[in-house]
## 1
Amino acid sequence: MIEVRGLSKHYGERVAVDDLTFTIKPGTVTGFLGPNGAGKSTTMRLILGLDRPTGGIATVNGKQYRDLVAPLHEVGALLEARAVHTGRSGYNHLLALAQTHGIPRSRVAEVIELVGLESVARKRVGGFSLGMGQRLGVAAALLGEPATVVLDEPANGLDPEGIRWIRNLLKGLAAEGRTVFLSSHLMSEMEQTADHLIVIGRGRLIADTDVASFVARASSGAPVRVRSPQLPALAAAVKTAGGTSESLEDGALQVYGLTSEQVGEIAAAQQLVLHELTPVQVSLEDAFMDITKESVEYQHSETSPTDVAMPVSAGSAANGGDS
Amino acid sequence: MSATTAPTLPGRADRSHERVTLPRVIRSEWTKLWTLRSTRWSLALAFLAQAGLGPLIALIEMARWSHLTLQDRLTINPIDHSLGGWHLAQLAVAILGVMTITGEYHTGMIRSSMMAAPKRLPVLWAKLIVFSVVVLVLMLVAAFIGFLGGQAIFTQHHVNVALSAPRALRTIFGAALFTTVTGALCIALGTIVRRTAGGIALFVGVFFVLPGLIEILPSTTANAIHPYLPNNAGGTIAQALADPFTFSAWGGFALFCGYTVAVIAIAAVLLLRRDA
């Protein structure tokens, strides 16, 4: 259980994290999404006690990280930035961390095997590839068998094989019932692994929801595709109902501003025949791009918090307007 | 709350006895110290300097005995000449002291250290304790070797002194203690500056540049400031024959320890307050 209440972090004039409040429930995989520079890493550093918040509080299992008597048992962390001395071997790095908690050497050997670093564990970390470095970071995070794992952009810079390894690892951690808090600026991985999403932009909370609702929310402004032998009549009826439409090359009509239910009811009222009525699916990635658009585009404007918090409303999704 | 909300994972061993304690952080720092190549080289260099430089000087003096003037022969100081290696040992230990902490900042290791021991201060105390004990033991052994080796060579022309000679033991222990406390001071400097180059520059500036600058001042002012400079205050205990403008051996060393404690206190406060 990670609880964040009114968390803020200012670096001089720059506001990196702005009054964030959310809860990571036990046993869930929660994706932490936001464009680069949204404040994801800073938030994680605040949770892990590395940075001191300007305001608010972050707790792990009810305590601030600094007050945990055995932090490696409570939460394991893989930071985006390097956190290993390059002159030391992977084994000795893990051993030194294990010794702070009295974790036995047998557990060090166990995590090395778990991440598949047996052959290079006695070599200096300075010679490790990026993928090997990530594996060592994961080994360190799992050293104390924590029920909660925090990972900051674990797939960043990895080759396809490394990404697949991370994906399988995340699935494994989730299957074991661990709480996983995972940040990313890419959606594709989240769609497969996350149950819940926390989306931030410019340090502020944009969404705190499950994956399905997040997609649905973004889909509320998405178009509806219809085919009908009476298209001109249907287009006119849509216009009367306040929607807009455009003809597609394949002969279908794309309707904006109305839901599929509304389009169906209009057709029924006008006794028009429909051959197809399809709400256009929005992928998680589209939803994310759409919802965070403003926090990327208007980084230097004086957008009020409500505009950022509720960027998706019917009719605005198509053009991204910020009325 | 944690007991009820955190899911119990299948096959998870009881690890309730595994928690962070100072002795465990000390063990961890012990491992960290000995698992870096740079540490082993620096400590080996410091040991060789403290143990070998004195006898080397003695060898040169004895070999050139027939060329020495009466004045030179009379001013041979068998204690200080056999222990003079601390000047080089101190430099090696100081640089290593700075790097013990700045190496962690440079590589990002500090974040792992702080996440494993989030109260932070135990990490600083453990580094100070491990480093000081290791350096003190090594330098004591090296100083005895240097002294005894030097005296064995000085017997050639009977200018040697015994271990029981006035100030002999005090200077042996003094050389080791001064180097050790310098190392502790440099760990604190490194914690404050967080950069290897900056930490070493600060050490060199305070220990070697500042004395030179003070000498430019009018002699009365220079003489008044002179004993308070860290290297002069601390150096009194490492020399049998100190120059006249300094404190007593233990008085000067006490002042040097006071400086060190003050710098450590600043380092501790900054370590707690700053973002890692």
Note: Residues 1-8 of chain B have pLDDT under 50 and may be disordered.
## 2
Amino acid sequence: MTAQMEERNCLVSRAVRGRIDESGKVLLPIIVIASDGLEIEVEALINLEFCGALVIPEELAGSLGWRCLGARRVAVGVEIRLMHHYLGMMAIGGDPRNVVVLGGIKPQAIIGQKLMSGRKLTVDFSLGQVLLE
Amino acid sequence: MKGGLTAEQLDEACWPVFERLMSELGELYHNWLVVIEPESGDYFLGQDDHEVLARARKRHPHGVFFAYRLNENPALDTL
């Protein structure tokens, strides 16, 4: 196998397909991995205003056995909320990695800029397709 | 969390350290992240939350930390 083919296969394996829901939200599937190795697929909203990695509902974060490292202040709209931060294992195509995960107040998981760094995000509203490569 | 502290109590315990750091380092490290361990008052500065929390954890393996942005608006993230 040539180096180019190997590189292409690697890139293909990292690709993740998402969807645009009926309200126009751009969603991607991610895998969160509990401390006992259990893998759970969660559909996460892409929020490019969020500079961090991942927010998942606090209840889910607490149930995964992740280490809670404390908390931080987060601006949610015009309000300031306190959110717990965890060190959690997750994957979004490719190998699992440790990221800082916030315990959110809403039921929707959110992924931010940090998880898309160095990757290419294509959102085609005409075809309703979402691809992260 | 450790010691049964709520997020609010942790914020309250770390806030005086943050205020001191803002007056001492706020200009030089404007917009950097600061992670504070409340019992020792130790603080860790950096620009990436994963890296700074990892450093804080290395020093205090069982600790809990409150994170701020060294700024007039200390919220670390925007959603």
Note: Chain B touches chain A at residues 1, 7-8, 10-11, 35, 49-50, 53, 56-57, 63-68, 73-79 (CB under 8 Å).
## 3
Amino acid sequence: MTGLISSMQHFSTGDGPGIRTTVFLKGCNLRCEWCHNPETISSKPVFMFYEHLCTNCGLCQEKCPQNAHRIIDNKHFFERKLCILCGTCIEHCQSGALKISGEETTLSAVMDYILEDIDFYSASNGGVTISGGEPLCQAEFTRAIAKECKNHNIHIIIDTAGNVNFSAFEKVIPYTDIFYFDLKGATEQDYRQKTGGSLNTVLKNMTRLAASGCSVVSRIPIIPGYSDSARYCAAMAEMLMKTGVRQVNILPFHRLGTSKYSALEKKYPYAECVPLSREKMEELLDVFLKYGLDVKIDG
Amino acid sequence: MKNLDLLKEEINIKPQNAKFIGNVLMYSGYTGHYDDPVPIARAYAIEALFTSYIKHIYANDLVAGSIRGKLSDDPNITDALINRANQVVESYGRNSFHTNADHYAPDYETFLSDGIEGTLKKIRLSLEEHKNDIDFYKKKTFLEAAKISMNAFSKMIEQYGMAAAQKAAEIEVKTQQSNLLKISEICNKIKFKKPDTFHEALQLVWLVHTSFLYEGRYAMALGRLDQYLYPFYQGDIQKGTLTRALALELIECTLYKIGEAVYLGGDDVVNIAIGGVKPDGSEGVNELSYVILEAVKNCNIPGPNLSARIHEGMPEEFLDECLKVIGTGLGYPALMNDEINIPALHRHGYTIEDCRNYCMVGCIENFIPGKQPPWSDGRYNVPKYIELVLNNGRCIQTGVQMGPDTGDASLFETMEDFLEALKKQMTFGAAEYMMFFRNENDRYNKVAYTQPYLSCYCRCCIERGLDINDGGSYYPSVHGAGCMGIATFADSLSAVEDIVYNKKLISLQTLKEALLANYEGYAEIRTTLLNAPKYGNNNNLADKYAVWFVSYTNELFSKYRTRDGGTIYTTIASNTQNISAGVEVDATPDGRFSREPLSDAASPMHGLDKNGPTAVVGSVTKPDYTLVSCGTVLNQKYSPSMFTDPLKRAKLLALIKTYFKKGGQEIQINAVSGDVLFDAMENPDNYKDLVVRVSGFSAHYICLDKAVQLDILERTEHE
């Protein structure tokens, strides 16, 4: 069995309790404006070119069978539409400027990677987080990873936006310890506008998941100019109260993903957006606290 | 304002226009004794040194002992006088690092229970005991010299007492006055009697340490301070005559004076080991371990090189407190694994109790306190032998035939052939290394170069009537062969195996040509080599050569002995000498250019550990470190949030515990961001207090040279 993986990362410190390995699956059915993992959105491999790392050595130009790379006047031009993602240029690149996100990976290769750190999971009460992209867009593969991890007694978190048919959840519920479930808006209209998905589906899934006894933590990105007001947070808190989910992590917006957008030759509308202050986050934390929710910043 | 802060202000005012007068003082001691046996003349020189410098007392101090007396602006001390003094003192000569003079942990435990009185009594008894020995003359001379120097030390303490009383009389602040009178009272007691209180014991230890600094010794360790002072601490606390807060202040005032080393133009490395198991194997962490940790944090200077011994089952709180201190940006304590270090020492035949009582001298060197002669080590430049294999024993930079003829490398058909040739070059290199070490180590006459004063702090010297380097010490001397560049070595062999022999992408002949050209015109080949598996990524192809590096260097050096029958330890640590060693080595098959730094200590090559800290742990713990008796350094850097956020700190703690459980020997952690370091390079004035550990010791970052600064900056920062 194989799945399309964007990347895998050991010692992830922001993806749940303890020392964790995070598996980022490719493909997402949402288009959140502020997305920090733009390379994971497409369900096909994508080529990334980090111009600032390029030393203009010219080896890619020499090796590319498609002439997609050209160095003219000490400037590197990459013609994306010529690229067939053969990876030849990457093998020859010394500066790490070239990359493909998205590799068809076997279950056993994923497990080999995960098991490298098994001693660390048990020592730290950590485990594996399956993230993305939207991992439930590859529900069968996610289920296979989670199931295999359970055979090794590894703690599993699935990090999902939940804009999927509940049958996808049903596939993974038996092997999942915690669901990290994103909440990205307070009204159907906002949600559709900012992410392209349906809030009703998300809330329905969240309620059903909580009712089936699963451990669910709601993860709310706080986006400047959108969800960073006390009023808006109150609206989201109120909705959460109806779902039965009581644990909340509020996640401050950051723009660390900016360079990925340029590597994909995409425009990042949030590139100039200043991250939220700690004080502001604490202010919003209080809003959720007032509802009696168990809320943390970052988590 | 806290006492420490006031003392810091006093100490931070450097002496101006001062000259070093150590040799002038020793010269005055030698002059009357030119016809005496050398050990006796040497003892009188020590006497003059200890008793004639000006005893400086800080108004805000609680523990006396300063090296300010080594400097003087007295106009009578002319350059001509200094030249004359140097001539005489140099003629008598003195031991150096390579002849076992410093990097020593004194037997403070015994000295505190004997005091000066008890020590002098032992000398008397020994003179009596050996009077019918065939070599009594030698022993008598040694013991006389020991007596003269110990009496001189007693006088030095008395003078500190007088100086403190005098200073008290001159000042008006009541608290300062009573503190100084207390110092005076204590000195008057311990100048002869053994100490009974914590304050007295600490004062005596510090004056012993100060006396070694006057002798010109460096990297003298305080050893297991939390163990040998604990009975005094516990006794006083029980009696109600000491509080934790006062003990903290006393230790702060003591350790901050290590920073006086800047008067002499640098930082000292005074190793202090806290925690660990006791000689009987029981838990050694006590309240004093925490007090010392806090004092070191508050002092915030690089000199006290704090080491925390970690073992299975120890209170997790202790490791957590260590991480908090590291997180302040101080860079220590270095964390040492008892579960590896104790077996690593025990193989050499020391009693298990002595092994459990180990401490460190210098940066990380394992040492049995007060029972073996001072430490020495050297550098064995392992990656150089890969260059020699490829060029039939010839050094590329100089053209000199350095190693044996191992044949034309381009004819090696298998990796095994390559490794056979490498073994021959390494074996020859180890013999050469030992030749240089022995010649240097033997270059002095054991009787003329006695160290009667130092010998008083080493178990059995007085009892046997023999000098520390002449059979007096309980255990023989050991030496450490610093095996350089484990990552450069493993990465190079991994590239040869992967690219030349497995994938057959290039021939060894082509590789050789690329290296000779320093990769000029071979960029593509270099990229191919860089893409081969690298140590630090938990990849067996590369890591197996790190395993081999550790076991084979141990095999090579375990054949040798020191002059008095001790063993040769290996060490996988390099301080900052990976840079100078790199200058000697031509381009290597890992993609490193000629003359670039080698990899640092046991750490992966900069920037080539691409899978995060758990993969680094995976690689670094594959070799058997119980074979490495001196020690290892693994440098790692984390962003400050890993220490301040309790949840993240718990993850770091689990990482370290797992590293140790898997057989890691040592880890040193920096908690500074790359941005800060970069800014510090540009604006050093704003970062005068920034302390960074560089492969085994702490230093002020801005004092490091550019290459070392870049070295630290490039270490992959793990978030």
Note: Residues 230 and 666 of chain B are 25 Å apart (CA to CA).
## 4
Amino acid sequence: MPIVTFRDPYWEPFREMERLKRRMSHLFEESFGPGLAQWRGVYPLVNISEDQDNLYVRAELPGIKPEALEITVHEGNLILRGERRIPTEEKQVNYHRRERESGYFRRVIRLPMAVHPDQVEASYKNGILTIKMAKPEEAKPRQIQVQAV
Amino acid sequence: MAEEKELKPRAKEEAPAKAEHVRPGRVFLPAVDIFETPETLTLVADMPGVPSDKITVDVRDNHLIISGEIAPPLGDKENLLVHEYYTGDFYREFHLGATIDQSRIEATMKDGVLRLLLPKVEKAKPRKIEVKVA
């Protein structure tokens, strides 16, 4: 299939470029599959996993005070808000490197399934926030027995 | 005071493979702050997921290596549904400008943040030399 038709009198190169760009990114996503989706990320990046009974959302948030975190579950969304503060050192220091960043964040995460808002637990360990949410009964996998007739 | 800045996600940078790693998986460079006072060099590194007993600090002459092994990032029977960040161990090497007193190194690990206090050896401290009047 030709991408550009040169005989077209209404050919708009910029629109064509835009379309090509979209096709390329689509292709990229298709070939690399559901890998990392970082380029459109919002802080903090999360990994979501499940087991039979629970859904887990994890985020790397090193050096955060748990009281600076606000976690809300609302209508199938998980809302994470907080602030990362890096205390300023005493005056007489010379910085060689400053790579750690401070600031606030707010992220709304669409959950892949409904959860019980009153069965949500959050824990913070080694700089990783884990939010454990109980799946509702109807979302749990159920084994179906085949009956011999 | 910390200015109100919105945090942006950053991709973790993989550590250059210098030698074969024994543990499978990726290895990343931790983000660090390094600052110096006349007496000490302080290094603060973000190593989320690393328990305090899995940190290794190695100082030899002017060469510093920090590394940390993460605890398993997922529970036993968990399947990943959304994968936005990679998990893996941390490793980074530094050349130190000053000679460090190895016997007085202090390391603390809290909430995935390593803080290393590296006291300088006496001779590396700047000293004021008094000029005697002859």
Note: Chain A touches chain B through 50 residues (CB under 8 Å).
